[in-house]
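Methods — Computational structure assignment.
A single polypeptide chain was analysed. Its primary sequence is given first, followed by the predicted tertiary structure written as structure tokens.
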Amino acid sequence: MPEMYFHVRWPDDTQSRCYSPSSTLREFFELDTPYPLNEFLARSRHALEHASERVRQRYGYACSSAASQMATIEHRAASFATTPNAVITVIAFDE
């Protein structure tokens, strides 16, 4: 279960490097596809919960780093809540 990073571009053209404890995150995002803010949040939440559950199944405990990453994503996304047509794009995967 290799950990990985995914890079996102926010509506203001800034970029962030985000963590996932599992490469299954690739199943939830297409590279260079702009996702509306709420869809990006839902996909991120589902992907990181899924990855954390894989950690739980293997090691007996959830991945606190996945939960922390989701909180960071939600905090950053909140700044775009009033931005019309805000989209976030996953621009790269690193393993």
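Note: The chain has a mean pLDDT of 95.
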